[in-house]
Amino acid sequence: MAVPGVVSDPPPPRGSLLRELFTIERPPPQTSAVRRLRMLVLLTAAATVLVDLVNLEYAPEGGFGLAVRTIWALLRAVGFLVLMRTIRYGRVISRPFGLILAATTVFAVGRLVVPRSGGLVPPWQVSAGFAVLFLMCAAVIWLLFRSKAIAAHLTRVSRFRQVPVWVLTARVAGLSLSALLLVPCLVAIGTLFDEPRAPYPVAVPVVVGWFFASLGLGFVVPWVMIFVILGQRWARWILGLVAVAVLALGPVVCWWLLGIDGLLRDGVPIVIASLVTLYGLWASRHQPRGEPVVR
Predict the structure, then answer these.
(1) What's the pLDDT score for residue 242?
(2) 3-state SS of the chain?
(3) Is the pLDDT reported for residue 212 higher than 50?
(4) What dihedral do alpha carbons 92, 176, 283, 236 form, nearest 10°?
(5) What span, in angstroms and rounded, lies between the C-alpha atoms of 99 and 86?
(6) Residue among 220, 253, 211 at smallest CA distance from 238
(7) How far apart are CA 281 and CA 240, in angstroms?
(8) N or C: which end of the chain has fewer CB within 10 A?
(9) What is the pLDDT of residues 24-65, one digit of tens each?
(10) pLDDT at 294
(11) What does the pLDDT read at residue 8?
(12) What is the pLDDT of residue 287?
């Protein structure tokens, strides 16, 4: 209904919306700084794979848990390739995505290379590879957040909705919770066939519940995120409660079923992602709504 004395923008023609939906988005021109960053991200993906394979070769112990964590670490290389594409297209989401990916990669690989038994220091080949990977991830984070040339490039948002950057940060961190819970759950499933830390009548239902809860989060959280992007308060509360529950229960279950090793290798990344989710929601509390793009 029109309000007297107030001039509202006319809705865009239906034809222009259809053209926008089916228009192939072109990436903005690349500067030398953007090309260097993308090359660094590519080398970081390769370093992630190399360090994992070297560690797999020199690891004094094998087993199902090491295999699961190695596969998960290798999948992070795919995440770096996705980060390359978001940087190429100048996406604002590149910053929170790169921060969470690099930070959790350093910690996950760092805990993976430390032997579970014997000496505390891994072979020098593994240590050298991890040191290089750490420096690469630190350089990626520094360039994403401190380089003015990169900041000038990462300005592109959704073609349909302007979303505050901290909402995007909470979205990326929240979507990672399911995977971060599922990996230690698979490791815990492997312990059921060996020597579980808890009695079978207790461990089996806990692990089964953990497995289905992880899958449930992977299905529910993306739908909740849609309403978070739309600025619905109830969706933000649901996401916040999910992050608090994961923060409180995830590390405890990792410690109970996998020991201190599982707490450090899997619990700390869960804590990092949960805290980033909560901080993203808190930082965007005054600007929670994604506004439609006006053309």
Answers:
(1) 95
(2) CCCCCCCCCCCCCHHHHHHHHHCCCCCCCCCHHHHHHHHHHHHHHHHHHHHHHHHHHHCCCCCHHHHHHHHHHHHHHHHHHHHHHHHHCCECCHHHHHHHHHHHHHHHHHHHHCCCCCCCCCCHHHHHHHHHHHHHHHHHHHHHHHCHHHHHHCCECCCCEECCHHHHHHHHHHHHHHHHHHHHHHHHHHHHCCCCCCCHHHHHHHHHHHHHHHHHHHHHHHHHHHHHHCCCHHHHHHHHHHHHHHHHHHHHHHHHHHHHHHHHHHHHHHHHHHHHHHHHHHHCCCCCCCEECCC
(3) yes
(4) 110
(5) 13
(6) 220
(7) 7
(8) N
(9) 667 788 889 999 999 999 999 998 888 877 777 666 555 666
(10) 42
(11) 43
(12) 66
Asked whether the predicted pLDDT for residue 203 surpasses 90, the reply is no
Q: Could you identify the residue written with the tokens 């805290």?
A: 275
Q: Which residue has the tokens 């953007």?
A: 34
Percent of all residues in the chain with a pLDDT value above 90, rounded to a whole number? 28
At 203, the amino acid letter reads A
Rounded-to-integer distance, Cα 155 and Cα 182, Å:
33
